[in-house]
Design brief:
Helix content of chain B: 40-55%
Number of strands of chain A: 17
Number of domains of chain A: 3
Shape of chain B: elongated
CATH class of the largest domain in chain A: Alpha Beta
Oligomer: heterodimer
Order of helices and strands of chain B: EHH
Shape of chain A: globular
Number of domains of chain B: 1
Number of helices of chain B: 2
Strand order of the largest sheet of chain A: 2-1-3-4-5-6-7
Distance between the termini of chain B: 69 Å
Number of strands of chain B: 1
Structural class of chain A: alpha/beta
Structural class of chain B: mainly alpha
Chain lengths: ~525, ~70
């Protein structure tokens, strides 16, 4: 059977490792079930540097070295592939995850060491290609969901692989293959008292994708959002659309998994890494989250502080949890039940309090809903964590004033993210030419600089430069309307009236619903 | 030894990490990380360990010398 090394790249270098590589450990689990020999090197957890990574590459005669991650890990991944080729030249070098799915042809050009890329959901593709490699069959031209390198060096993208129909067919991730003690050591975070005192926090995932069409977001080609089409030159390209295949685990799968983690790993906190729990709940017509909450209590996971209705302290037993919500989709009754079951905080991507920005964003919320959501969530007992963005294409002094005014009313202090056009998002294709221009023709440099949007990369604001946005971020943080008025006065005085960032059309994005393929029922892993 | 690789079989070669070198590197790396995250006001960070200055001031002086001679 194939001898496989899976490498988790370093994520958010400036922070400690907080999140287990969920997808990689799932793929490891699937490959092991098929009988393959699998090792995981979690570079993000260990943070040992590239010297140690080279030793890892030399530790065995790997048939496959697979490295995957989000676009924000691009710099690490590029270097890692170079070192893999140098230290293990006979291995097949395989890429996967968001960084290659969003721009397969570009990545294959920028990292010539990659032999094969898995594009989109890899639950079926990964074991399929391992099986071919086992049989010494290296012709991937008829394998869907891959980009492969031909002997002539050119890369070819095959049609999209249908996503699986039923997420409950998936095995549990291979947690035993991860250095969990490192993650447990970093359990605490600053979102709620309960998460602040967490000692053994673990990530769990209940769903894939999201029904919304926010222009800054994309869904890794795993939510029916991706198809493959030929461009004018006859080359296959990924195309992202508003198409959606909504999939979520059954409440019993989720709660049984958390129960397993509680019993085997003694976890005290479960972080749902789902894109948006509320959109899944809406898709289930409000049944999904209520059932999860009921089962949470039934299976003995409800924390004792919630059972007894007493303040939380370090003696509390059971499993607290958190997730993501939506201002237009949450319901007080559901939030209340979530709180009773142990939910501590919910991240709300409010993004802005400006009606015009929200109208154009595709988020499905309004300024009024954004405002009311904070109070509704608080009154359920759950802490809302409102995220704010600055630098929208339509951002003006008035929109910033609306946001600051609401933040003052609601008692929110935030240093906003900068609006960032990540590959795969509608914004990226609308503003690609402008991004390339801002990076002096070097798109790869932009990709290599992309982080978590807390610093400026390329701007997409029609009115503000990067320098201005940095100052405006500080003004929002301070909620200083006097300083904002002063900045506006100077801006009008000095501004050369021109708009530079015009949206454009792109082969890679369709602003309509064209669903990616999905399998029929009955997949066995 | 820390188990850097985890899997469903034993790998062919052990991965040796030199403990002293590792801790020294870690201290430098960790210090840099914490220092850079604290930048602001009087908290500044100098990345270099050595620097031989061959900058503009000297060059300008030489230019002036030539002019005056």
């Amino acid at each position: 059977m194939a001898k496989v090394l899976l490498v988790n790249p370093v994520v958010r270098e400036e922070d400690i490792p907080r999140h287990i590589p969920y997808g990689i450990s799932l793929l490891a689990s699937i490959a092991m079930k098929k009988g393959h020999l699998v090792q995981i090197y979690d570079a993000n957890a260990w943070r040992k540097g590239f010297d140690v990574l080279e030793k890892v590459f030399r530790a065995d005669d790997w048939d496959v070295i697979a490295i995957g991650g989000l676009t924000t890990t691009y710099r690490f991944i590029k270097k890692a592939f170079q070192l893999a080729k140098k230290n293990s030249p006979k291995s097949i070098l395989m890429a996967g995850g968001g960084f290659i799915t969003s721009m397969p042809q570009d990545i294959m050009g920028w990292i010539p060491e990659i032999d094969l890329g898995l594009v989109g959901e890899a639950f079926v593709t990964f074991p399929e290609v391992l099986d071919k490699i086992d049989r010494q069959d290296f012709n991937f031209s008829s394998t869907t969901g891959v980009v492969f390198r031909h002997k002539n060096g050119k890369s070819y993208l095959t049609p999209a692989k249908p996503v699986i129909k039923n997420l409950d067919d998936l095995p549990y991730p291979a947690w035993d293959l991860l250095p969990l003690d490192i993650y447990f050591k970093n359990s605490a975070n600053l979102f709620s008292e309960e998460s602040f005192t967490a000692k053994r926090r673990m990530d769990v995932n209940g769903s894939l994708g999201c029904g919304l069409v926010c222009k800054y977001c994309w869904h890794l080609g795993t939510t029916g959002d991706m198809i493959v089409e030929e461009d004018k030159a006859g080359e296959n390209q990924v195309v992202f659309t508003y198409g959606r295949n909504i999939r979520y685990h059954s409440p019993s799968y989720i709660v049984n998994m958390v129960k397993h983690l509680y019993e085997v790993y003694n976890i005290d906190f479960a972080s749902f890494i789902d894109e948006n729990l509320m959109t899944m709940d809406a898709a289930s017509r409000g049944i999904w989250l209520n059932e999860i909450c009921d089962l949470w209590k039934e299976k003995g996971l409800q924390p004792t502080c919630r059972q007894k209705n007493i303040p939380h302290d370090e003696d509390c037993r059971g499993v607290h949890w958190n997730g993501t919500s939506h201002a237009g989709l949450h319901k007080f009754e559901t939030l209340k039940r979530m709180h009773e079951a142990g939910c501590t905080h919910l991240v709300y991507g409010l993004e802005s309090f400006d009606p015009n920005i929200l109208k154009n964003l595709g988020k499905g919320s309004t300024a009024a809903r954004n405002k009311s959501s904070v109070g509704i969530c608080l009154s359920s007992g759950i802490k809302p964590i409102p995220n704010i963005i600055l630098g929208f294409p339509e951002e003006t002094f008035d929109s910033i004033k609306n946001t600051i005014t609401a933040m003052k009313e609601l008692g929110i202090t935030a240093k906003p993210h900068f609006a960032t056009a990540y590959p795969g998002s509608e914004w990226y294709y609308s503003y690609k030419n402008s991004i390339i221009e801002q990076y002096e023709g070097d798109l790869e440099k932009y990709i290599a600089e992309l982080g978590d949007a807390s610093s400026i990369s390329a701007t997409i604001s029609h009115h503000f430069t990067g320098v201005e946005l940095i100052g405006l971020q500080e003004i929002i943080y301070k909620k200083d309307l006097r300083l904002l008025a002063l900045a506006e006065k100077n801006w009008h005085r000095n501004r050369k009236q021109e708009q530079i960032n015009y949206p454009q059309d792109s082969i890679n994005f369709k602003s309509k619903s064209v669903r990616g393929p999905m399998e029929a029922e009955g997949r066995t892993f | 030894m820390e188990e850097l690789l985890k899997g469903n079989y034993k790998v062919t070669k052990n991965i040796e990490i030199e403990a002293e070198e590792k801790s020294e590197n870690n201290l430098t790396i960790n210090f840099k990380k914490v220092a850079l995250n604290s930048i602001g006001g009087s908290m500044v960070y100098v990345e270099r360990n050595t620097l031989v200055w061959e900058g503009e001031e000297e060059a300008a002086d030489k230019k002036n010398e030539i002019k005056s001679s």
